[in-house]
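Example (one chain per record):
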Amino acid sequence: MTTKVKQVIQSQQVVLSSRPEGKPTSANFKISSEEITPIAEGEFLVKNQWMSVDPYMRGRMKESDSYVPPFQIDKPLEGGCIGEVVDSRNSDFHEGDIVIGHLGWREFWKSTGEGVTKVDPNLVPVQTYLGTLGMTGMTAWVGLNKIAKLQDCSTVFVSAASGAVGSIVVQLAKAKNCRVIGSAGKQNKIAWLEDNTGIDAVINYKTTNDLVEELSSHAPDGIDVYFDNVGGDHLEAAMDVMNDFSCCVECGMISTYNATEPVSAPRNLFKLISKRIRMQGFIVRDHLEDRDEFISDMLPLIKANKIVWEETITDGLENAPSAFIGLFEGDNLGKQLVRIA
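Predicted structure:
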């Protein structure tokens, strides 16, 4: 049973104390407390249970224009979260409902319901709605189905293949009988991919002497789709091996997020012309109208064990900054989550 919250409560939160120069450090974050006043008519109060940390958040720490506004200094950060409604004066949301929102990095938040989605906690573990059945899984699904328009039996290269998005891309492509090559930088990640996803080949990009040569050896007939999570030398290598009329799906470029100087690669962009390669970036939020189709596609695959996933869990809101920083050290296998309560 939940208890109605009638008094002012103190909510712990993580704020951005300074903008990172290069790779973020713990000094860029601090823990503070905010008073949450009782809800008004039409509002409800959520106690967060889980939150997501994701590489895209690094871009919001810069004071520059992007597809979402930058985080503000001494203000709480934001991100995907899931929690329980603990008090409500909104007829559409009731105490005990489990909801997804975007006000992570804090214990409590109030809402009128805008941008908040109720989910079924009996269908999958609730944190799955931040990963495989959330924006992470939908990013993989949109990139392959709506951007690449992936055809059966294609050859697909996935960078950061053991990551939250990449690992789902691998399995969705395998479900379409594709040949899939991935890259990863640690042996445990390579082993997980080989043991769980049906991937055809994995390149250890940290130990290979020639990424183009190794990629070519695993894709002798060329690459039809490159799902890019890394950019830089991975993108350059992929374009050398891609087929005519192939597609680069630009999802992320984590190799550049902490750069303090302009990056040099890729140096072969002219191949977009000579090979007639289609390159398209995308933001999953532009495709929210496809969520029902995404869920209906994913659930049968999950039930048939054709989609599996790994979670790296950090306990405690106060440890969210270290979980985020670990993304750029390659610490996470699969989805990086923070368990708040």
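Caption: DSSP finds nine helices and 15 strands in the chain.
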